[in-house]
Amino acid sequence: METSESITVLIENLKEQGYTKDFKAEKDGIRCLQTKKLYTADQLEIESKHRNDGNTNPADDSLLLAVRTKDGEKGTILLSYGAQHSQNPDLIRKL
Fold this sequence. Notes:
This protein is α/β, with parallel strands linked by helices. The chain has two helices and seven strands, in the order E-H-E-E-E-E-E-E-H. It is globular. The mean pLDDT is 81. This is Phosphoribosylpyrophosphate synthetase.
C-alpha cells in the first residue's frame, strides 16, 4: 500500500495510467459513475491501494483504490475509513 500527501495528485497519476472511470460505493455494490453499471465485490479486482491520513482530523482518513472490473473498466474508488461514513461495511470488507 502506498501513502501519499495528496489524493488529487494520486487520482491524476492513475488517470494517466488508464484508470479513468470513477466508482462509488453504494448499499448493494460499487457503481461506475460514467456507465451507471453496478458491480458486486467479486466483479472487481483491486490493483493498488493508496492510503491518505487526514492531517488534523481522523475523520478525513481515506483509502484510494485503483480497480479493474471483470468487463475491463479501470478506475478509482475513494473510501473513507474514519469512524463515521455512509458506506456499506460488509461490501467494503469483501473488496
